[in-house]
Amino acid sequence: MSIRSWLRACEKRFLRPLGRRVRGTTDGTRQRSDELGRLERRVEALESLVRELAGLAYLRLDTVATTAETTRPAIATEPREAA
Amino acid sequence: MIASTVLVDLRACQFNGDRGIPAYAQSLTAELVRRPSGIRWLLLQDPRWPQPPRAAELAARASWCTIADLEGPQAARVDAVLTGCFFLPHHGCDAGYLLPACLRRQQPRRLGIVYDLVPLLFPDRYLANERVRRQYHDALGLLRRSDHLFAISHASRRDVIRHAAVDPARVDCIYGDIDHRKRTLMAVSAAATARTPGRFGLTGPFCICVGGDDWRKNMETTVRAFARFRRDHPGHQLAIVCRLPDRRIADLQKVAREEGMPSGALVCTGYISDEDLVALLQHAEMLVYPSLYEGLGLPVLEAYGCGTPAVGSASSSVAELVLPELGCDPREPDSIAAAMGRLAGHPALRERSLAFGRRLLAEELGWDRAADRVLERLAARRPRPPRPPDGRHRLAVVGALPPARTGIAPYTLRHLQDRRWRTTFYEAGSALRPAPPAGLLATSQVVPTEVLPVAVERGRHDTVIFVLGNSAHHVDVLEAMIRSRGGGPRRLAYLHEAAIEGLCRGWLGPEADRLPASDAGDSPVPWIRKAIAERPAMGSCLRFLAERAELDGLLVNSEACRDLIRAALGPLADRWTIDVAFLPIVCPAATADRPPPAAAGRPLRIGSFGMAGDTKRLDLFTQAAALLARQRPVELVIAGWEARRYCRRLTIPAEIRREVLDAPDDETLAAAMTSVHVAVQLRWPTFGESSGVVNQLLGFRTPLVVAEVGSFADLPDGVATFVPADCSAEALARAIVTAADRPLAPDRHDAFLATRSPEAFAARIAEILAAESPAANATGRADNSRGPLLRSPHVRRPAGAAAAARES
Predict the structure, then answer these.
(1) In this predicted complex, what is the ipTM?
(2) DSSP class of residue B808?
(3) Interface residues of chain B, partner chain A, Cβ below 8 Å
């Protein structure tokens, strides 16, 4: 028996049944992967935001965005305190 | 140019009756559709829920539609979407619901109304539920990526800038006004409604508070404040107007009793009709509105409209609507009571408050003003900013840069910067660069693509060039192209090939397959016909760029590419200038020694370089080598990505010595290129793309055999030997021998390389940058009659002339 045919026999006898069993138990994993996908998208969005803010700072375009336009009255600047 | 079809998403108006957000969105829409703007208005609703209250009124000037109506092949093309509200209360109203696939595919300009960001500011109160939080953040992401936003107050605008990190230039405050219907009711004289307060048990002077069953409406503190006010002003009553559950009413009555108020001093009316609301406002002594947080505060405006002064919070948007002397700290009952006392005790203050309200309504607010701002922003392009005094052109290049694994990246970095202009590279990719890339000029800089919309909005650039190839490396470039629409600078796309369906699929996903087809004509040129037949999606993707990307023109590497784009796109190609700038050829400082001639007995070394694939016709190449091997010794050199894997599929006779270099580095590839007697670079079908490998071979002065199609046909006779694209192995073998035996003509080669030098390329780019496109600025369409540019030395002759000259 050649090595190749021996490997193929192993695959048919052990690996494929094992694969079927594993697939049968992955419903929960799939749900978790959806959640992971969502988290990945969220992380990508946050990374994108970081890049944007870093780029704005580098080009000195952030000064207007974060200071001049957002000076607000005392109460309004602390909305969480009102909670 | 104004967007011709605008979809107003009014699905938010199908909830919560006709007050608040539904009232605002419908009133603004009514004003927009009333204008003779030439826009076709579509109003979006969800068939699962009841129609918006003013559906019939709006239907007179606009058409209602559903998502299903926008799905079909005959569906209307939407140029812009105005989202009435981003945050819908129902489960499943996430980003996919707000911007369904049929709209995402069309990539219309996206505008939206922002009322407030209350849940984001008070997450413990509003976003405790995981599902709600996820949905809210989903919608918030969509809000951030909008082209333009309209906030209903300056406070909301500041919140969007500060808490959602939206660029200030992309948010306008448009305010709003009193609902049209309530305006009509306010015209009725107060005498006609004198009995209405009595029906609700309001027998004496009373204050009114219009609220809701929401924590931030601050009802308990209002009752406590009123109790303190009443100690100095006995006989007054407080009317709380809103729908409240019995449990909440009992709680408020309990607070009133605790504060020593007699029975009947606090009246909770429940939900009342607009007629009754207007009547109560007309007869109230004052409106008390100490809300903890508001997006606008429509009750204050309604009170002014009814001739009633208002006391309100000195925070959020309410601070903009009340007289500063009548502002209060909404968390302190004493502060509210003091403001109420000031108003009740000073008739002059009452007059000032009413005058302030009248001025506000007459001069700052109004649906007509709000509609004007929205229509202004629907206009496609804004004027180009003036150039700074030093006069150097400010170029933005958006593309992938090294080390991105695309051949376009090094070209972009190396050749799109020059001392004649200032380049800002907007780099596609996910990483922040810790240090500038090697070879960056002192006058250039590199920043992420995310910054482009803001930089364009602030007039930082005179021209933006989007560098595109057909791979996932350029998805960010496409995204930046769409997100930076509407800005002033000239916008060019540098297409390295005409077929960009892989790029579109990487960006739009499966939706890319549903892009509408272009109006491609039947081309007389065989290779163009073949290319269009092979890739039908090519025209769809180019049409998407033509219709959605707001480009002034294209920049391509070859006349062949230009001809293919025109053929694949049809009449839409007239929207663009299409300038040709041949890829520069970089000659090595010292050309390596050429191999000795393949004399009798010596093997003939033949090479094929670049990424292996079916289109490179390596099968024909090996057949020709096998034919030659019958007459003389032959060695094959095959180098490039996937070379080893591909060579396993080829049948190469055993007597031919072969050298396969899989994914060689630059030095190895260069050594291999200079070691062969002839390089064979075939391509069929071709999509007009230029070949970096052919350029390298020309720089090394390696004798070349190329297929006479696409961009290869632009090469002059003296520098390459041509074979028909569908030639036989015998013909290719003959061409190889001819190329190997024919001596190079150094003068002709040098003259050719001079026209393709990096200096000539830079001069060509400078020429393109210097060219103005006034037509584009005025109408959004570019002038296509640019003869002088195409006659520049860098572009030798019109399309097809090279092939015609050789045939003659």
Answers:
(1) 0.73
(2) -
(3) 121-122, 124-125, 134, 137, 141, 155, 158, 161-162, 165, 167-168, 216, 292-293, 313-316, 319, 329-331, 424, 430, 432, 445, 447-448, 450-451, 454-455, 458, 460
